[in-house]
């Protein structure tokens, strides 16, 4: 038996909550995330450019937020789940020194296709909502 | 901007609606394990479907896949962006916005749909159009326009992999000096009660760990919150007693939305009847919201709730 378990559709109910995940927002995560997603926009690695845009420091790029949202959901579902869509509304920026807490809840489930919708919310401890959206996953029909 | 100027400006920007930003172009690098691993390392993503070849070989997929959320990564322009982007209809449109004062930029929504998973060896191709331009909107950031780009991703066989719809607000920024922004980074605390002539003494006592109840010197009637005159006998002479902080829930509510910075959630606000007979509004803590009920017995403690505030908090007795 594999050390990696994947939830099957039968394991999941609407209303199930995902284990919350705290992410420490560091300069390393912001710059590292920008480069790992090949996003060289100066506001994500150059503090003086970020400040000229009215923010106190470099801020997280969208592709990193998407990555963290995707990780949060598959950490819960397991590796055989397949992500079908990622729908994300952006709120307050994540800047170094903040902590973002990601929470999620199953909001829809379709037993015929094995697809579930997970509503995900990432809030930082200073400015509140950073990202909010829905991840659609296809789960194996049975474990 | 006069109405005529606005019309002239809108005519120019709406001309970009439907414009192709780029024709179908292959990524410089095929999907590859190195870029996937760099991504998973930063995201802290240990999903074996991305990086564990042995596990993946025996999985239903039979091979590793790229994280779906990397869809847009493969075709990024890369380092040259540090010195500006090459001209295309999107950068030209953005430049036009900037010329007219709409220099602020904010990504507001991004939606990706995935039609199939990609694996090392696949080559992601992208084409992009400006799909939608809004009318002029008043937003919290300032007046502006939303535009959407639609990127369509295909593989080396021209089979559709996914789409991305990205919504951006271009706006006239309101003044926000960097220094003010920096100040906002302080961890927020609760909203402090204003301390005036008639209630300052109550809050000062609270700072020292005591919850006091005002008492009429003339008729001994207790009253809370603090005020200058007795409602029973109209005397303005008063002293106070210290509350036992034994109480019970008279009524309560759970605050959900909007979340107020500085407060811990779940957040229960209750009207609590104290043994002495007066009511106090405070928080019920130390239990699940679903455990709270009217008539529940409580015991209060004066606690420092954040860097700036000391308040009574009530626990299940």
Structure, described:
Chain A: It comes from Candidatus Seongchinamella marina. Chain A: This is Acyl dehydratase. The complex is a heterodimer of chains A (143) and B (317). Chain A is elongated. In chain A, strands 1-3-4-5-2 form a five-stranded antiparallel β-sheet, covered by helices on one side. Chain A has 143 residues and is an alpha+beta fold. Chain A has a single domain, classed as Hotdog Thioesterase (Thiol Ester Dehydrase, Chain A, Roll), CATH 3.10.129.10. Chain A is built from three helices and five strands, in the order βαααββββ. The mean pLDDT of chain A is 94. Chain A has helices spanning 27-36, 47-52, 62-77, and strands at 21-24, 82-90, 99-110, 115-124, 128-138. Chain B is α+β, with helices and mostly antiparallel strands and 317 residues long. Chain B folds into two domains: 3-31 and 66-175, Thiol Ester Dehydrase, Chain A (Roll), CATH 3.10.129; 200-316, OB fold (Dihydrolipoamide Acetyltransferase, E2P). Chain B contains seven helices and 14 strands. Chain B has helices spanning 3-14, 33-43, 48-51, 53-57, 89-99, 178-183, 200-207, and strands at residues 20-26, 104-114, 125-133, 137-139, 142-154, 160-171, 212-216, 222-223, 238-242, 246-255, 267-274, 279-284, 297-304, 310-316. In chain B, the strands form three sheets. In chain B, strands 1, 2, 3, 4, 5 and 6 form a six-stranded antiparallel β-sheet that branches. In chain B, strands 10-11-12-14-13 form a five-stranded mixed β-barrel. In chain B, a hairpin with a 5-residue loop joins strand 5 (142-154) and strand 6. The longest helix of chain B is centred in the N-terminal third of the chain and has 12 residues, at 3-14. Chain B is elongated. At the A-B interface, helix 1, helix 3 and strand 2 of A face helix 2, strand 2 and helix 6 of B. Strand 2 (82-90) of chain A pairs antiparallel with strand 2 (104-114) of chain B.
């Amino acid at each position: 038996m594999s050390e990696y378990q994947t939830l099957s559709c039968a394991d999941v109910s609407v209303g199930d909550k995902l284990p919350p995940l705290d992410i420490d927002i560091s300069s390393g995560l912001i710059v590292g995330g920008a480069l790992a997603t090949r996003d060289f926009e100066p506001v994500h690695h150059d503090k003086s450019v970020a400040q000229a845009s009215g923010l106190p420091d470099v801020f997280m790029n969208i592709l990193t937020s998407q990555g963290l949202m995707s990780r949060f959901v598959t950490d819960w579902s397991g590796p055989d789940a397949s992500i079908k869509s990622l729908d994300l509304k952006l709120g307050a920026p994540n800047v170094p020194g903040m902590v973002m807490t990601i929470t999620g809840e199953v909001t829809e489930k379709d037993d015929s296709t094995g697809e579930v919708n997970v509503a995900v919310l990432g809030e930082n401890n200073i400015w509140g909502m950073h990202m909010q959206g829905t991840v659609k996953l296809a789960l194996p029909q049975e474990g | 901007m006069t109405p005529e100027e606005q019309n002239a400006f809108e005519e120019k920007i709406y001309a970009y609606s439907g414009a192709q930003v780029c024709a179908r172009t292959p990524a410089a690098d095929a999907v590859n394990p190195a870029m996937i691993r760099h991504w998973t390392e930063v995201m802290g993503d240990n999903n074996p479907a991305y990086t564990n070849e042995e596990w993946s070989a025996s999985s239903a997929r039979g091979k590793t896949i790229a994280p779906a959320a990397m869809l847009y990564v493969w075709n990024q322009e890369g380092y040259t962006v540090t010195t500006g982007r090459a001209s295309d209809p999107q950068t030209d449109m953005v430049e036009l916005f900037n010329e007219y004062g709409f220099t602020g930029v904010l990504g507001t929504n991004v939606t990706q749909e995935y039609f199939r998973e990609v694996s090392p060896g696949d080559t992601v191709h992208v084409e992009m159009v400006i799909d939608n331009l809004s009318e002029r909107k008043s937003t919290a950031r300032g007046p502006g326009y939303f535009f959407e780009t639609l990127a369509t991703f295909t593989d080396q066989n021209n089979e559709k992999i996914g789409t991305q719809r990205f919504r951006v607000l271009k706006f006239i920024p309101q003044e926000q000096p960097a220094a003010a922004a920096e100040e906002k980074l302080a961890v927020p605390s609760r909203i402090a009660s204003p301390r005036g002539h008639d209630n300052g003494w109550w809050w000062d006592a609270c700072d020292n760990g005591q919850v006091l109840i005002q008492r009429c010197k003339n008729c001994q009637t207790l009253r809370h919150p603090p005020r200058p005159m007795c409602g029973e006998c109209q005397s303005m002479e008063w002293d106070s007693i210290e509350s036992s902080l034994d109480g019970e829930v008279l009524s309560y509510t759970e605050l959900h939305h909007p979340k107020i910075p500085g407060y811990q959630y779940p957040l229960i606000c209750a009207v609590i009847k104290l043994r002495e007979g007066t009511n106090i509004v405070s928080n019920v803590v130390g239990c699940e919201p679903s455990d709270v009920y009217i008539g529940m017995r409580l015991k209060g403690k004066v606690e420092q709730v954040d860097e700036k505030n000391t308040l009574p908090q009530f626990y299940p007795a």
